[in-house]
Amino acid sequence: MDTGLFLEKLILVVILFAISLGVAMYSTYLERKVAAWFQDRVGPDRAGPWGLLQPLADGGKMFFKEDFTPVNADKWLFIIAPGIAMFVALITSAVIPWGPNIFLFGRDIQLQVAHVDIGILFIMGFVSIGVYGIMIGGWASNNKFSLFGAIRASSQMISYELAMGIAVITIVLLTGSLDLGEIVKAQHGINWFVFKQPVAFIIFFVCALAECNRAPFDLAECESELIGGYHTEYGSMKLGFFLFAEYTNMFISSAVIAVLFFGGYNFPGMDAFTGNWLALMCVGVFFAKIVFFIFVFMWIRWTIPRFRFDQLMHLGWKRMIPIALINLLITAVVIAFMEGWFN
Amino acid sequence: MSIEIIAYILGGLTIGSALMVILSTHPMRSILYLVVTFFMISANYVLMNAQFLAIVNIIVYAGAIMVLFLFVLMMLNLSKDAEPKTSIPMIAAAVIAGGSLLVVFVAALRDSGGKQLVAPGVSADTVNNIGLVKNLGHELFTTYLLPFEITSVLFMSAIVGAVLLAKREKQIID
What we know:
The complex is a heterodimer of chains A (about 350) and B (about 170).
Chain A: H1 3-38, H2 54-64, H3 75-91, E1 102-104, E2 107-109, H4 119-129, H5 131-140, H6 144-175, H7 180-185, H8 193-196, H9 198-211, H10 223-226, H11 236-261, H12 275-301, H13 309-338
Antiparallel strand pairs in A: 1-2
Chain B: H1 2-23, H2 27-47, H3 51-75, H4 88-110, H5 124-129, H6 133-142, H7 145-168
Helix pairs in contact in B: 1-2, 2-3
Protein backbone atom coordinates (compact mmCIF):
# COMPACT_ATOMS: atom_id res chain seq x y z
CA MET A 1 0.00 0.00 0.00
CA ASP A 2 1.18 3.47 -0.88
CA THR A 3 1.96 5.19 2.43
CA GLY A 4 1.65 8.68 0.96
CA LEU A 5 -1.82 7.95 -0.40
CA PHE A 6 -2.86 6.48 2.92
CA LEU A 7 -1.60 9.54 4.82
CA GLU A 8 -3.21 12.04 2.48
CA LYS A 9 -6.59 10.27 2.67
CA LEU A 10 -6.32 10.03 6.46
CA ILE A 11 -5.62 13.76 6.79
CA LEU A 12 -8.48 14.54 4.40
CA VAL A 13 -10.88 12.37 6.40
CA VAL A 14 -9.92 14.09 9.67
CA ILE A 15 -10.32 17.54 8.12
CA LEU A 16 -13.69 16.63 6.62
CA PHE A 17 -14.86 15.19 9.92
CA ALA A 18 -13.88 18.37 11.74
CA ILE A 19 -15.49 20.58 9.10
CA SER A 20 -18.73 18.58 9.08
CA LEU A 21 -19.04 18.78 12.85
CA GLY A 22 -17.98 22.44 12.92
CA VAL A 23 -20.50 23.43 10.28
CA ALA A 24 -23.23 21.44 12.03
CA MET A 25 -22.32 23.17 15.32
CA TYR A 26 -22.48 26.65 13.90
CA SER A 27 -25.63 25.76 11.94
CA THR A 28 -27.44 25.58 15.29
CA TYR A 29 -26.19 29.08 16.07
CA LEU A 30 -27.15 30.29 12.60
CA GLU A 31 -30.58 28.73 12.95
CA ARG A 32 -31.24 30.68 16.15
CA LYS A 33 -29.93 33.91 14.70
CA VAL A 34 -31.97 33.46 11.49
CA ALA A 35 -35.08 32.64 13.51
CA ALA A 36 -34.51 35.71 15.63
CA TRP A 37 -34.01 37.86 12.56
CA PHE A 38 -37.22 36.57 10.94
CA GLN A 39 -39.21 37.12 14.12
CA ASP A 40 -37.68 40.53 14.81
CA ARG A 41 -35.81 39.45 17.96
CA VAL A 42 -32.13 39.64 18.98
CA GLY A 43 -31.39 35.95 19.38
CA PRO A 44 -28.56 34.46 21.48
CA ASP A 45 -26.09 37.23 22.37
CA ARG A 46 -24.83 36.41 25.91
CA ALA A 47 -22.06 33.84 25.35
CA GLY A 48 -19.11 35.59 23.73
CA PRO A 49 -19.27 38.42 21.15
CA TRP A 50 -22.61 38.23 19.26
CA GLY A 51 -23.28 34.98 21.10
CA LEU A 52 -20.64 33.18 19.05
CA LEU A 53 -19.81 30.77 21.89
CA GLN A 54 -23.44 29.68 22.22
CA PRO A 55 -22.93 26.27 20.44
CA LEU A 56 -20.10 25.42 22.89
CA ALA A 57 -22.32 26.32 25.83
CA ASP A 58 -25.10 24.15 24.39
CA GLY A 59 -22.74 21.25 23.86
CA GLY A 60 -21.43 21.54 27.43
CA LYS A 61 -24.97 21.59 28.77
CA MET A 62 -25.83 18.46 26.74
CA PHE A 63 -22.80 16.61 28.12
CA PHE A 64 -23.58 17.33 31.76
CA LYS A 65 -27.23 16.36 31.64
CA GLU A 66 -28.33 13.08 33.18
CA ASP A 67 -27.97 10.20 30.73
CA PHE A 68 -31.36 8.58 31.10
CA THR A 69 -32.74 5.30 29.71
CA PRO A 70 -36.43 4.46 30.15
CA VAL A 71 -37.12 1.24 32.12
CA ASN A 72 -39.11 -0.47 29.39
CA ALA A 73 -36.83 0.56 26.56
CA ASP A 74 -34.79 -1.92 24.54
CA LYS A 75 -31.44 -0.79 26.00
CA TRP A 76 -29.10 -1.88 23.21
CA LEU A 77 -31.15 -0.45 20.38
CA PHE A 78 -31.91 2.68 22.40
CA ILE A 79 -28.19 3.40 22.70
CA ILE A 80 -27.24 2.39 19.16
CA ALA A 81 -29.93 4.44 17.34
CA PRO A 82 -28.37 7.93 17.72
CA GLY A 83 -25.04 6.39 16.71
CA ILE A 84 -26.53 5.07 13.48
CA ALA A 85 -28.10 8.45 12.73
CA MET A 86 -24.77 10.22 13.25
CA PHE A 87 -22.73 7.62 11.31
CA VAL A 88 -25.00 7.78 8.27
CA ALA A 89 -25.01 11.57 8.34
CA LEU A 90 -21.20 11.76 8.36
CA ILE A 91 -20.25 8.99 5.92
CA THR A 92 -21.74 10.53 2.76
CA SER A 93 -19.17 13.34 2.81
CA ALA A 94 -16.63 10.74 1.59
CA VAL A 95 -17.74 10.77 -2.05
CA ILE A 96 -18.32 14.51 -2.50
CA PRO A 97 -15.65 16.26 -4.63
CA TRP A 98 -14.69 19.29 -2.52
CA GLY A 99 -12.43 20.90 -5.10
CA PRO A 100 -10.08 20.28 -8.02
CA ASN A 101 -6.73 18.60 -7.38
CA ILE A 102 -4.17 20.39 -5.19
CA PHE A 103 -0.40 20.10 -5.68
CA LEU A 104 1.41 19.80 -2.34
CA PHE A 105 4.82 18.26 -1.48
CA GLY A 106 5.21 17.08 -5.06
CA ARG A 107 1.95 15.13 -4.91
CA ASP A 108 -1.24 15.58 -6.88
CA ILE A 109 -3.83 15.42 -4.12
CA GLN A 110 -7.45 14.71 -4.93
CA LEU A 111 -9.92 16.59 -2.70
CA GLN A 112 -12.29 13.64 -2.57
CA VAL A 113 -11.87 10.83 -0.06
CA ALA A 114 -13.28 7.98 -2.13
CA HIS A 115 -13.25 8.39 -5.88
CA VAL A 116 -15.80 5.72 -6.80
CA ASP A 117 -17.60 5.52 -10.14
CA ILE A 118 -20.98 5.16 -8.41
CA GLY A 119 -20.74 8.27 -6.20
CA ILE A 120 -24.31 9.45 -6.55
CA LEU A 121 -25.70 5.95 -5.92
CA PHE A 122 -23.59 5.78 -2.76
CA ILE A 123 -25.29 8.93 -1.51
CA MET A 124 -28.76 7.67 -2.45
CA GLY A 125 -27.99 4.38 -0.70
CA PHE A 126 -26.99 6.03 2.55
CA VAL A 127 -29.92 8.42 2.38
CA SER A 128 -32.18 5.37 2.40
CA ILE A 129 -30.21 3.87 5.30
CA GLY A 130 -30.64 7.11 7.26
CA VAL A 131 -34.16 6.21 8.30
CA TYR A 132 -32.89 3.33 10.48
CA GLY A 133 -31.60 5.64 13.19
CA ILE A 134 -34.98 7.29 13.57
CA MET A 135 -36.98 4.05 13.28
CA ILE A 136 -34.87 2.12 15.79
CA GLY A 137 -34.76 5.08 18.18
CA GLY A 138 -38.52 5.56 18.01
CA TRP A 139 -39.28 1.89 18.43
CA ALA A 140 -36.76 1.18 21.18
CA SER A 141 -38.07 4.05 23.35
CA ASN A 142 -41.26 2.04 23.95
CA ASN A 143 -43.40 5.16 23.85
CA LYS A 144 -46.39 5.57 21.58
CA PHE A 145 -45.49 9.10 20.56
CA SER A 146 -41.98 7.99 19.65
CA LEU A 147 -43.43 5.10 17.63
CA PHE A 148 -45.77 7.48 15.79
CA GLY A 149 -42.81 9.69 14.98
CA ALA A 150 -40.77 6.72 13.76
CA ILE A 151 -43.58 5.41 11.55
CA ARG A 152 -44.23 8.84 10.11
CA ALA A 153 -40.54 9.38 9.42
CA SER A 154 -40.13 6.05 7.65
CA SER A 155 -43.18 6.38 5.41
CA GLN A 156 -42.22 9.95 4.57
CA MET A 157 -38.65 9.00 3.69
CA ILE A 158 -39.70 6.02 1.54
CA SER A 159 -42.17 8.22 -0.35
CA TYR A 160 -39.79 11.07 -1.09
CA GLU A 161 -36.80 8.90 -1.97
CA LEU A 162 -38.53 7.85 -5.18
CA ALA A 163 -39.02 11.33 -6.59
CA MET A 164 -35.50 12.23 -5.44
CA GLY A 165 -34.05 9.26 -7.29
CA ILE A 166 -35.89 10.14 -10.49
CA ALA A 167 -34.63 13.73 -10.29
CA VAL A 168 -31.08 12.39 -9.90
CA ILE A 169 -31.53 10.10 -12.92
CA THR A 170 -32.25 13.13 -15.16
CA ILE A 171 -28.87 14.58 -14.13
CA VAL A 172 -27.20 11.22 -14.76
CA LEU A 173 -28.77 11.21 -18.24
CA LEU A 174 -27.26 14.64 -18.95
CA THR A 175 -23.73 13.65 -17.92
CA GLY A 176 -23.75 9.95 -18.75
CA SER A 177 -21.92 9.21 -15.50
CA LEU A 178 -22.75 8.28 -11.91
CA ASP A 179 -19.41 9.71 -10.79
CA LEU A 180 -19.85 12.94 -8.81
CA GLY A 181 -16.45 14.17 -10.01
CA GLU A 182 -17.57 13.80 -13.64
CA ILE A 183 -20.90 15.48 -12.87
CA VAL A 184 -19.07 18.50 -11.45
CA LYS A 185 -16.62 18.64 -14.37
CA ALA A 186 -19.55 18.66 -16.82
CA GLN A 187 -20.72 21.96 -15.27
CA HIS A 188 -17.55 23.94 -15.98
CA GLY A 189 -17.80 27.72 -15.50
CA ILE A 190 -21.44 28.82 -15.37
CA ASN A 191 -22.71 25.80 -17.32
CA TRP A 192 -24.76 24.68 -14.30
CA PHE A 193 -27.45 22.04 -14.51
CA VAL A 194 -30.02 24.20 -12.72
CA PHE A 195 -30.45 26.15 -15.97
CA LYS A 196 -31.02 22.97 -17.96
CA GLN A 197 -33.08 21.14 -15.35
CA PRO A 198 -35.00 23.64 -13.19
CA VAL A 199 -37.86 21.17 -12.61
CA ALA A 200 -35.50 18.44 -11.43
CA PHE A 201 -33.86 20.98 -9.10
CA ILE A 202 -37.17 21.95 -7.47
CA ILE A 203 -38.14 18.30 -7.02
CA PHE A 204 -34.74 17.41 -5.60
CA PHE A 205 -34.78 20.37 -3.25
CA VAL A 206 -38.24 19.59 -1.85
CA CYS A 207 -37.28 15.94 -1.43
CA ALA A 208 -34.06 16.95 0.32
CA LEU A 209 -36.12 18.99 2.79
CA ALA A 210 -38.32 15.95 3.40
CA GLU A 211 -35.37 13.56 3.77
CA CYS A 212 -33.72 15.84 6.33
CA ASN A 213 -37.00 16.01 8.31
CA ARG A 214 -36.88 19.78 8.10
CA ALA A 215 -39.92 22.00 8.30
CA PRO A 216 -42.37 22.03 6.51
CA PHE A 217 -41.86 18.27 6.48
CA ASP A 218 -40.86 17.76 10.13
CA LEU A 219 -43.86 15.58 10.95
CA ALA A 220 -41.56 13.03 12.56
CA GLU A 221 -40.86 15.35 15.48
CA CYS A 222 -43.84 17.67 15.25
CA GLU A 223 -43.66 19.07 18.78
CA SER A 224 -47.25 20.29 18.87
CA GLU A 225 -48.80 16.82 18.51
CA LEU A 226 -46.01 14.29 19.13
CA ILE A 227 -44.01 16.19 21.80
CA GLY A 228 -40.77 15.58 19.91
CA GLY A 229 -41.62 12.37 18.06
CA TYR A 230 -38.87 9.80 17.85
CA HIS A 231 -36.61 11.56 20.36
CA THR A 232 -39.24 12.16 23.05
CA GLU A 233 -37.52 9.76 25.47
CA TYR A 234 -33.97 10.83 24.66
CA GLY A 235 -31.85 13.13 26.76
CA SER A 236 -28.26 14.22 27.24
CA MET A 237 -25.77 13.56 24.44
CA LYS A 238 -27.97 10.89 22.82
CA LEU A 239 -30.48 13.60 22.04
CA GLY A 240 -27.52 15.76 21.07
CA PHE A 241 -26.49 13.15 18.50
CA PHE A 242 -29.96 13.07 16.95
CA LEU A 243 -30.12 16.87 16.70
CA PHE A 244 -26.54 17.07 15.47
CA ALA A 245 -27.21 14.42 12.83
CA GLU A 246 -30.05 16.55 11.50
CA TYR A 247 -27.74 19.53 11.04
CA THR A 248 -25.02 17.37 9.51
CA ASN A 249 -27.60 15.97 7.09
CA MET A 250 -28.52 19.52 6.18
CA PHE A 251 -24.88 20.33 5.48
CA ILE A 252 -24.42 17.24 3.30
CA SER A 253 -27.66 17.73 1.37
CA SER A 254 -26.70 21.35 0.72
CA ALA A 255 -23.39 20.07 -0.63
CA VAL A 256 -25.16 17.50 -2.84
CA ILE A 257 -27.57 20.13 -4.16
CA ALA A 258 -24.61 22.37 -4.98
CA VAL A 259 -22.80 19.47 -6.71
CA LEU A 260 -25.75 18.28 -8.78
CA PHE A 261 -27.35 21.57 -9.80
CA PHE A 262 -25.10 24.53 -8.97
CA GLY A 263 -21.83 23.41 -10.46
CA GLY A 264 -20.12 22.18 -7.29
CA TYR A 265 -16.84 24.08 -7.07
CA ASN A 266 -17.20 25.69 -10.51
CA PHE A 267 -17.67 29.44 -10.83
CA PRO A 268 -17.82 31.80 -13.80
CA GLY A 269 -14.42 33.14 -14.80
CA MET A 270 -12.50 30.26 -13.20
CA ASP A 271 -10.37 29.81 -16.33
CA ALA A 272 -8.38 32.94 -15.39
CA PHE A 273 -6.73 31.06 -12.51
CA THR A 274 -4.56 27.97 -12.35
CA GLY A 275 -2.87 25.66 -9.85
CA ASN A 276 -3.35 25.82 -6.10
CA TRP A 277 -4.95 29.28 -6.11
CA LEU A 278 -7.71 27.93 -8.35
CA ALA A 279 -8.19 24.94 -6.05
CA LEU A 280 -8.42 27.14 -2.96
CA MET A 281 -10.87 29.54 -4.61
CA CYS A 282 -12.95 26.58 -5.82
CA VAL A 283 -13.19 25.17 -2.30
CA GLY A 284 -14.16 28.63 -1.01
CA VAL A 285 -16.85 29.02 -3.67
CA PHE A 286 -18.19 25.55 -2.93
CA PHE A 287 -18.51 26.33 0.78
CA ALA A 288 -20.17 29.65 0.00
CA LYS A 289 -22.79 27.76 -2.02
CA ILE A 290 -23.28 25.26 0.80
CA VAL A 291 -23.76 28.01 3.40
CA PHE A 292 -26.24 29.70 1.10
CA PHE A 293 -28.31 26.51 0.82
CA ILE A 294 -28.19 25.96 4.58
CA PHE A 295 -29.57 29.49 4.91
CA VAL A 296 -32.34 28.67 2.39
CA PHE A 297 -33.25 25.57 4.44
CA MET A 298 -33.64 27.79 7.52
CA TRP A 299 -35.44 30.49 5.57
CA ILE A 300 -38.05 27.91 4.56
CA ARG A 301 -38.35 26.55 8.08
CA TRP A 302 -39.21 29.91 9.56
CA THR A 303 -41.55 30.91 6.71
CA ILE A 304 -43.76 27.96 5.79
CA PRO A 305 -46.07 26.19 8.28
CA ARG A 306 -46.04 22.42 8.69
CA PHE A 307 -47.95 20.12 6.32
CA ARG A 308 -50.70 17.81 7.50
CA PHE A 309 -49.74 14.15 7.06
CA ASP A 310 -52.22 13.35 4.28
CA GLN A 311 -51.13 16.51 2.43
CA LEU A 312 -47.53 15.32 2.72
CA MET A 313 -48.34 11.92 1.20
CA HIS A 314 -50.50 13.53 -1.46
CA LEU A 315 -47.69 15.88 -2.47
CA GLY A 316 -45.14 13.08 -2.52
CA TRP A 317 -47.01 10.42 -4.47
CA LYS A 318 -49.47 12.37 -6.62
CA ARG A 319 -47.48 15.50 -7.45
CA MET A 320 -43.73 14.99 -7.13
CA ILE A 321 -43.41 11.52 -8.69
CA PRO A 322 -45.55 12.19 -11.81
CA ILE A 323 -43.82 15.54 -12.43
CA ALA A 324 -40.41 13.91 -11.97
CA LEU A 325 -41.33 11.09 -14.37
CA ILE A 326 -42.61 13.48 -17.06
CA ASN A 327 -39.47 15.58 -16.66
CA LEU A 328 -37.34 12.45 -17.04
CA LEU A 329 -39.24 11.40 -20.17
CA ILE A 330 -38.88 14.82 -21.81
CA THR A 331 -35.17 14.94 -20.96
CA ALA A 332 -34.63 11.47 -22.41
CA VAL A 333 -36.46 12.34 -25.65
CA VAL A 334 -34.54 15.61 -26.05
CA ILE A 335 -31.21 13.85 -25.47
CA ALA A 336 -32.15 11.12 -27.96
CA PHE A 337 -33.07 13.83 -30.47
CA MET A 338 -29.75 15.66 -29.96
CA GLU A 339 -27.86 12.39 -30.40
CA GLY A 340 -29.56 11.96 -33.75
CA TRP A 341 -31.68 8.90 -33.00
CA PHE A 342 -34.62 10.20 -35.05
CA ASN A 343 -32.69 10.93 -38.24
CA MET B 1 -1.89 -11.95 0.90
CA SER B 2 -3.59 -9.28 3.02
CA ILE B 3 -6.64 -9.32 0.75
CA GLU B 4 -7.08 -13.02 1.50
CA ILE B 5 -7.10 -12.33 5.25
CA ILE B 6 -9.69 -9.59 4.70
CA ALA B 7 -11.79 -12.01 2.66
CA TYR B 8 -11.68 -14.63 5.41
CA ILE B 9 -12.60 -12.12 8.13
CA LEU B 10 -15.40 -10.77 5.98
CA GLY B 11 -16.69 -14.26 5.22
CA GLY B 12 -16.73 -15.08 8.91
CA LEU B 13 -18.60 -11.89 9.75
CA THR B 14 -21.12 -12.53 6.95
CA ILE B 15 -21.88 -16.05 8.16
CA GLY B 16 -21.90 -14.93 11.78
CA SER B 17 -24.44 -12.16 11.18
CA ALA B 18 -26.54 -14.51 9.02
CA LEU B 19 -26.55 -17.02 11.89
CA MET B 20 -27.62 -14.30 14.31
CA VAL B 21 -30.66 -13.64 12.10
CA ILE B 22 -32.06 -17.05 12.94
CA LEU B 23 -30.61 -17.35 16.44
CA SER B 24 -31.84 -14.08 17.94
CA THR B 25 -35.15 -14.47 19.71
CA HIS B 26 -36.63 -11.09 18.98
CA PRO B 27 -37.96 -10.44 15.42
CA MET B 28 -36.80 -6.82 15.57
CA ARG B 29 -33.21 -7.89 16.21
CA SER B 30 -33.47 -10.57 13.54
CA ILE B 31 -34.32 -7.92 10.97
CA LEU B 32 -31.48 -5.67 12.11
CA TYR B 33 -29.04 -8.58 11.84
CA LEU B 34 -30.40 -9.24 8.36
CA VAL B 35 -29.58 -5.62 7.47
CA VAL B 36 -26.04 -6.17 8.80
CA THR B 37 -25.84 -9.32 6.66
CA PHE B 38 -26.78 -7.35 3.55
CA PHE B 39 -24.02 -4.87 4.33
CA MET B 40 -21.56 -7.74 4.70
CA ILE B 41 -22.64 -9.21 1.36
CA SER B 42 -22.15 -5.77 -0.21
CA ALA B 43 -18.66 -5.63 1.28
CA ASN B 44 -17.94 -8.98 -0.39
CA TYR B 45 -19.09 -7.51 -3.70
CA VAL B 46 -16.78 -4.53 -3.26
CA LEU B 47 -13.92 -6.94 -2.60
CA MET B 48 -14.69 -8.50 -5.99
CA ASN B 49 -14.64 -5.01 -7.58
CA ALA B 50 -18.39 -5.09 -8.24
CA GLN B 51 -19.22 -1.67 -6.81
CA PHE B 52 -22.46 -1.21 -8.71
CA LEU B 53 -23.89 -4.51 -7.49
CA ALA B 54 -22.79 -3.68 -3.93
CA ILE B 55 -24.55 -0.32 -3.78
CA VAL B 56 -27.69 -1.58 -5.54
CA ASN B 57 -27.83 -4.40 -2.98
CA ILE B 58 -27.77 -1.79 -0.20
CA ILE B 59 -30.32 0.51 -1.84
CA VAL B 60 -32.82 -2.23 -2.71
CA TYR B 61 -32.52 -4.64 0.20
CA ALA B 62 -31.24 -2.66 3.17
CA GLY B 63 -32.76 0.65 2.12
CA ALA B 64 -36.18 -0.34 0.83
CA ILE B 65 -37.28 -3.89 1.58
CA MET B 66 -35.94 -4.07 5.13
CA VAL B 67 -37.43 -0.67 5.97
CA LEU B 68 -40.82 -2.06 4.90
CA PHE B 69 -40.21 -5.14 7.08
CA LEU B 70 -39.43 -2.92 10.07
CA PHE B 71 -42.42 -0.76 9.28
CA VAL B 72 -44.80 -3.75 9.36
CA LEU B 73 -43.13 -5.16 12.46
CA MET B 74 -43.60 -1.92 14.38
CA MET B 75 -47.33 -2.09 13.80
CA LEU B 76 -47.59 -5.67 15.08
CA ASN B 77 -48.27 -6.62 18.65
CA LEU B 78 -45.12 -8.49 19.62
CA SER B 79 -46.22 -10.25 22.78
CA LYS B 80 -45.25 -13.79 23.70
CA ASP B 81 -48.75 -15.34 23.43
CA ALA B 82 -49.22 -14.01 19.89
CA GLU B 83 -46.39 -16.24 18.64
CA PRO B 84 -47.44 -19.35 16.72
CA LYS B 85 -46.82 -22.63 18.53
CA THR B 86 -44.23 -24.93 16.98
CA SER B 87 -45.16 -28.62 16.97
CA ILE B 88 -42.84 -31.59 16.48
CA PRO B 89 -44.07 -32.40 12.91
CA MET B 90 -43.39 -28.79 11.93
CA ILE B 91 -39.85 -28.94 13.27
CA ALA B 92 -39.30 -32.26 11.46
CA ALA B 93 -40.59 -30.80 8.20
CA ALA B 94 -38.33 -27.77 8.58
CA VAL B 95 -35.29 -29.97 9.25
CA ILE B 96 -36.01 -32.15 6.19
CA ALA B 97 -36.56 -29.14 3.90
CA GLY B 98 -33.42 -27.37 5.13
CA GLY B 99 -31.38 -30.57 4.90
CA SER B 100 -32.36 -31.23 1.29
CA LEU B 101 -31.48 -27.64 0.38
CA LEU B 102 -28.05 -28.19 1.95
CA VAL B 103 -27.59 -31.38 -0.10
CA VAL B 104 -28.45 -29.50 -3.31
CA PHE B 105 -25.98 -26.71 -2.46
CA VAL B 106 -23.19 -29.12 -1.65
CA ALA B 107 -23.83 -31.11 -4.83
CA ALA B 108 -23.84 -27.96 -6.96
CA LEU B 109 -20.74 -26.38 -5.43
CA ARG B 110 -18.60 -29.51 -4.93
CA ASP B 111 -17.27 -29.65 -8.47
CA SER B 112 -16.80 -25.92 -8.99
CA GLY B 113 -14.38 -25.44 -6.07
CA GLY B 114 -11.24 -23.52 -6.95
CA LYS B 115 -11.98 -23.33 -10.66
CA GLN B 116 -12.50 -19.92 -12.22
CA LEU B 117 -15.66 -19.85 -14.27
CA VAL B 118 -14.38 -17.82 -17.23
CA ALA B 119 -15.41 -18.27 -20.81
CA PRO B 120 -12.51 -18.98 -23.22
CA GLY B 121 -11.17 -15.92 -25.01
CA VAL B 122 -11.96 -13.49 -22.18
CA SER B 123 -8.96 -11.71 -20.69
CA ALA B 124 -8.39 -11.52 -16.91
CA ASP B 125 -8.65 -7.72 -17.09
CA THR B 126 -12.20 -7.90 -18.45
CA VAL B 127 -13.19 -10.32 -15.70
CA ASN B 128 -11.79 -8.08 -12.97
CA ASN B 129 -13.51 -4.94 -14.23
CA ILE B 130 -16.86 -6.38 -15.26
CA GLY B 131 -18.48 -5.17 -12.03
CA LEU B 132 -17.76 -1.50 -12.76
CA VAL B 133 -20.91 0.28 -13.81
CA LYS B 134 -19.70 1.21 -17.31
CA ASN B 135 -18.83 -2.36 -18.33
CA LEU B 136 -21.89 -3.81 -16.65
CA GLY B 137 -24.22 -1.38 -18.41
CA HIS B 138 -22.54 -2.02 -21.73
CA GLU B 139 -22.95 -5.79 -21.36
CA LEU B 140 -26.58 -5.46 -20.24
CA PHE B 141 -27.53 -3.35 -23.24
CA THR B 142 -25.64 -5.35 -25.88
CA THR B 143 -25.04 -9.03 -25.06
CA TYR B 144 -27.89 -9.55 -22.61
CA LEU B 145 -30.43 -7.07 -24.02
CA LEU B 146 -33.33 -9.53 -24.39
CA PRO B 147 -33.21 -11.00 -20.85
CA PHE B 148 -32.80 -7.49 -19.46
CA GLU B 149 -35.85 -6.18 -21.31
CA ILE B 150 -37.92 -9.22 -20.33
CA THR B 151 -36.99 -8.62 -16.69
CA SER B 152 -38.16 -5.03 -16.95
CA VAL B 153 -41.49 -6.22 -18.39
CA LEU B 154 -41.77 -8.51 -15.38
CA PHE B 155 -41.14 -5.57 -13.03
CA MET B 156 -43.69 -3.48 -14.89
CA SER B 157 -46.38 -6.14 -14.45
CA ALA B 158 -45.47 -6.41 -10.76
CA ILE B 159 -45.88 -2.64 -10.34
CA VAL B 160 -49.25 -2.69 -12.13
CA GLY B 161 -50.35 -5.58 -9.92
CA ALA B 162 -49.29 -3.72 -6.76
CA VAL B 163 -51.20 -0.59 -7.82
CA LEU B 164 -54.28 -2.71 -8.56
CA LEU B 165 -54.12 -4.37 -5.13
CA ALA B 166 -53.77 -1.01 -3.41
CA LYS B 167 -56.65 0.47 -5.38
CA ARG B 168 -59.15 -2.25 -4.52
CA GLU B 169 -60.13 -0.91 -1.13
CA LYS B 170 -61.93 2.40 -0.99
CA GLN B 171 -59.73 5.13 0.39
CA ILE B 172 -60.90 6.70 3.61
CA ILE B 173 -58.65 9.72 3.54
CA ASP B 174 -59.12 11.79 0.44
